[in-house]
Amino acid sequence: MEALITFPPAMNVIPQVVKDGFVRAVGPIARAFIRSGVTPNTITTLGALVVAGSAVAFAYGEIRIAGLLLLCSGVLDILDGQVARQGQKMTTFGAFYDSTLDRVGESLLFGGIALYFLRGGAPTGRVELSVGLATAALAASLLVSYTRARAEGLGLECKVGIAARAERILFLGVPTLFFGAGRNGWLLFWIVVVLALATTITVVQRVVHVARITREASGEATARKRDTLPGHASVLRKGR
User: What's the chain's average pLDDT?
Assistant: First the structure.
């Protein structure tokens, strides 16, 4: 694969120093897994099963358990990458497998939330709106991941945005762990509203980001091409 073209990243909601600190905190667990011979794909599979459990818990109204399981899946999501890197077990299939199961997990998660709303968990009179917002949040979440994958497939770096995967997990997992769905389901409803909005904004941010860096790269390529035209450099020197 071609080297990624890097440009100054846009600000994310979770500061990079916080992310790096958490990665260091789970480092001993990753090293213990490596010594035990646990493979990254095994951790990825376990993480997907935990997300599926979170989706089921959401669907059946066990909101605090769902939040806890979702946060645990986030830890496993970090661990599989750490085990792959530190244990020198990074493979093309592993990256593909991890990305695919992440999308499956998100689909199940928002599907579980939509089922919870349909089963009486939505605020009074807002069942259709709640389900529609859960569907919108799912679609936008998948697009957030797709825009990054497509950009990286073209050799571009695209990690910008206010609602990357880590932000989505924390914003949904932490409040539901401590407060459940809220009175008459209003807390979960507003979490889904914010997620639908934030993920849509993130998609737009990534499209704009890729448009900008491709335009800049195209301009630089055009300038280099002009500088290498026969006789062009000497003409420029004479004109100084």
Answer: 88
Number of structural domains found in the chain: 1
- Of 72, 54, 164, residue with least CA distance to 115: 54
Q: What is the pTM of this model?
A: 0.85
Residue 175 reports pLDDT greater than 60? yes
pLDDT (tens digit per residue) in 225-239:
666 555 555 444 444
pLDDT of 5 > 60? The answer is no
Residue indicated by tokens 């689909």 = 107
Residue 16: pLDDT over 90: no
Query: Residue 117 is part of a domain; what is its CATH number?
Result: 1.20.120.1760
Q: Give the list of residues 6+ apart from residue 172 with CB closer than 8 angstroms, or none.
A: 67, 70, 109, 191, 195
Q: Identify whether 210 is part of a domain.
A: yes
Q: How far is CA 61 from CA 2, 55, 122, in A?
A: 47, 10, 11
**Residue 44 DSSP SS3:** helix
Q: Please tell me which residue in 20, 80, 102, 227 is annotated as part of the active site.
A: 102
- Domain residues for 48? 16-234
Is 102 an active-site residue? yes
Asked whether 90 and 64 are in contact (CB, 8 A), the reply is: no
Phi, psi angle pair for 35, to nearest 5°:
-65, -30
- Please state, in angstroms and rounded to a whole number, the distance separating the CA atoms of residues 33 and 40: 9
Specify if 165 maps to a domain.
yes
Look at residue 181 and tell me if it is in a domain.
Answer: yes
